[in-house]
Amino acid sequence: TPAGAAMRTEISTAAAFVTRLLRAAGGIGEEQLRCFRECLQEALREHYKHHWFPMVPSKGSGYRCIRINHKMDPLIGKAAGMIGLSHERLFQLLPSELTLWVDPFEVSYRIGEDGSICVLYESPQPGGKTTKPLESRTSCKEEWRIGRSSPSKNYNMMTVSS
């Protein structure tokens, strides 16, 4: 599909970023990570199929937002389930608060509620619209590593057994 081709770079950037966070946390094999990345890309492609508007990039942004905040994002959870990672394990490996915006021409993220928004991928929009200046990009380059070093908060999780 044309939309599928159009969002390939943005989706692969987002999936690679989450995979990098898992790799940095350690304890997951490369083959599992590769499988996770492919499963996440497929889940994102499917989820965004009818919610991708290159002419109005901000339209549908909330729908395409990937979020971990006391609850695991279902798309990340689904991809992790494919390689046998539980939600509990994911909460140990990933930042407890992560927001990832996957929009046409831009993928950005924020770790923590008050963190800086960092751009992972940006390309000029067709039609010559200029995008935001990139000064902020350098200050964020290694932030995802630093964000991980702060002690993770312990949340009491309720589990429901069937």
Automatic annotation (TrEMBL):
Domain named Anti-proliferative protein: residues: 94-113
Entries under InterPro entries matching the protein: Anti_prolifrtn (IPR002087), BTG (IPR033332), BTG-like_sf (IPR036054)
Similarity field: Belongs to the BTG family.
Assigned GO CC terms: cytoplasm; nucleus
Gene that encodes the chain: Btg1_1
Gene3D superfamilies noted in UniProt: Anti-proliferative protein, N-terminal domain
Highest taxon of source: Eukaryota
Protein name as it appears in the record: BTG1 protein
Entry coiled-coil feature ranges: none
Listed GO biological process terms: negative regulation of cell population proliferation
